[in-house]
Amino acid sequence: MSTESPKSFHIKNYGCQMNVYDGERMAEMFAARGMEASDKADADLVILNTCHIREKAAEKVYSEIGRLRRKDGSSPLIAVAGCVAQAEGGEISRRASEVDIVVGPQAYHKLPDMVDAVTRGESSVDLDLPGLDKFDTLPRRRKTGPTAFLTVQEGCDKFCTYCVVPYTRGAEISRPFADLVDEARALVDAGAREITLLGQNVNAWEADGQDLGTLIRALDRIDGLRRIRYTTSHPNDMTDGLIAAHAEVEKLMPYLHLPVQAGNDRILKAMNRSHSRDSYLRIIEKVRAARPDIALSGDFIVGFPGETDAEFEDTLSILREAAFAQSFSFKYSPRPGTPAATMDGQIAPEVADERLQRLQAQINAQQLAFNQATVGKRTSVLLEKQGRFDGQLIGRSPWLQSVHILGEGLSIGDIVDVDIVEAGPLSLKGELLMQVAA
Predict the structure, then answer these.
(1) Which CATH architecture has domain 8-126?
(2) Taking residues 68-77, what's their average pLDDT?
(3) Cα–Cα distance between 402 and 382 in angstroms, integer?
(4) Could you tell me the pTM of the whole model?
């Protein structure tokens, strides 16, 4: 372990968009100290910002730690942050002596001080869940791309039986209204045209007598902000006011990610989901009545303990009935400490694999059909990055589709009008009409 203060850093983010946000904020902290971002191979400090949702998440982190050892036998300073750090705790340092810092997702604002402690030869582990403390100490947002994340809520009180989030992120907490409006303005001043509001249960955000619908309306009044999105939502928190915002706030994009997880009521109850199949579909009806062109996406888990063939068929049918434009699907895998991990009726891997393949085939078919239905439409695209070819740029439609266009004199961050002329399963091709005023 080096005893010199690191001058460069590299952050590797795993998993969800909230980890991307957290990684950006870590980078801002170290940049404020005069450190430079670097490639993993050359960095003095490497931070693995981990996620515990996927199967064998901890083992993948240990494998990555091993790969950080250099040819001369040395290693950079290594920090393991995020949800695996929270779940594994001091076991990480015991299993991987190369690790210098272990810090949970609610304590990463202490990372600079923890790095200083390590350079003094002290061990550094912090797994506190101090609520909103970190947001009070993070630097003001100063630079961003055309799209930016803004965490408004963290933690979860729902305790779905398969999920580790309540144990790794803590209880639901909501950031103050004024702080969020201030950070949103700072992001726009720093170059953001679109802001995505983030939370484990983002639509559970409630602070200072406001809810997510009223927060969205406040952000709608920020000059220079052109698009608003939010994720991830819980059906239990889809209020009438939030649904109305989809009809009334032009900047709120016509896209809703609303995980359902399964289409059978017995399985939903075993998962400790607070909605039923029918109540979920009623929410979708209300959302579509408010915004008929909305694109809906969801999350699905197949092979949950005890799931029968008939109950899996219910999941396939709700996928069709709700007409999802895209979705994310996962094969159930036990998470230590969660109730589902010890339930009877664990599904054989080959059965779960077959169900996942059938579900993904249906998801892919529906996504392709949705994309093909946009051919011939005229829409706006926010340009986010350069494409593979000269003059090609890639952006997002209001429905979060990737759109490829060719156009001279355009810049990242421009919002342009295009005609959609081709559609594939993963992206669209658009022909440029004219540039919308910046």
Answers:
(1) 3-Layer(aba) Sandwich (3.40)
(2) 84
(3) 10
(4) 0.88
